Amino acid sequence: MLLNLQAPTPLEYFATLVQSDQGFPLLEVALSLAQDEYPQLDLQHTLALLDALQMRLQKRCGRQTSMLERIHLLNRLFYGELGFGVNANDYYDPDNSFVHLVLQTRRGIPISLGVLWLELARSIGLEAHGVAFPGHFMLKVLLSQGQVVLDPLTGRSFSSEELTVQLQNLLPRLSHLNEESVPLAMFLQSASPRETIARMLRNLKEIYRLQQDLPRLLAVQNRLVILLPQAWNEVRDRGWVHVDLHHTEAALADFQSYLEHVPQPLDAEDVRAQIQQLRTGI
């Protein structure tokens, strides 16, 4: 039996990490997103840096430290002493999504800061989760008396009234409802680790799409297709990137797979027309 001793490619490594929802290693997967851009990235070094921060925080929490006080201690370390916060000067820089750089610069966007915060929170026994709130990734901690929803940019907690106003501003269809009628709980459900990584990738997808950076956009699409094997719209979107890169065979394969798995999509006519055009050009 022949053994393959070659190191896995970044995409192969990513596929191994995300193959199961059980024990999904959120931080390691989030770190691995940078490997296309930074192939020499030492993931273990970055994990060790976070381990050191976790130990530093754990020393401040005794057995009698309440969960609410643990949140305060975490925020004091994360935002106060370490100075983590938003990269307001260049919010749409792709580097804001690369967690190893956020750990170095202390600057990021809500979701990358949130991933780091969650790892620290769980290390001190907090039942913390990400929240895929519209327009702004958030954090929540479940307590015996309820839940606390926090802004990952500052650590500040939100009231129900503030969250309702944000929802109504983001979703005009809710603006006519009174506060009691807005389905706030629906938008505060915990985001799974897979959903969190999908949101990180889609942030990068939008940045690279706007920049017309096709090679990087394709790398992101490849990861989305692996991460979300039933999301056939991502296969279709990868097909359009292949078209722009003149990858005819790959584009045809993606479009055909999309139509096979989504029998009556709204864009079927456009996709079939593109398939015909590609076949004509072969």
UniProtKB/TrEMBL annotation:
What SUPFAM superfamilies would the database entry show? Cysteine proteinases (SSF54001)
Pfam short name (any one) = TPR_9
- Domain Protein SirB1 N-terminal: start-end pairs: 46-202
Q: Which domain of life is it from?
A: Bacteria
User: What family does the Swiss-Prot or TrEMBL record give for this protein?
Assistant: Belongs to the UPF0162 family.
**Protein name per Swiss-Prot or TrEMBL:** Regulator of sirC expression, contains transglutaminase-like and TPR domains
Question: Can you name the source organism?
Answer: Lampropedia hyalina DSM 16112
The uppermost taxa in this organism's lineage are: Bacteria, Pseudomonadati, Pseudomonadota, Betaproteobacteria, Burkholderiales
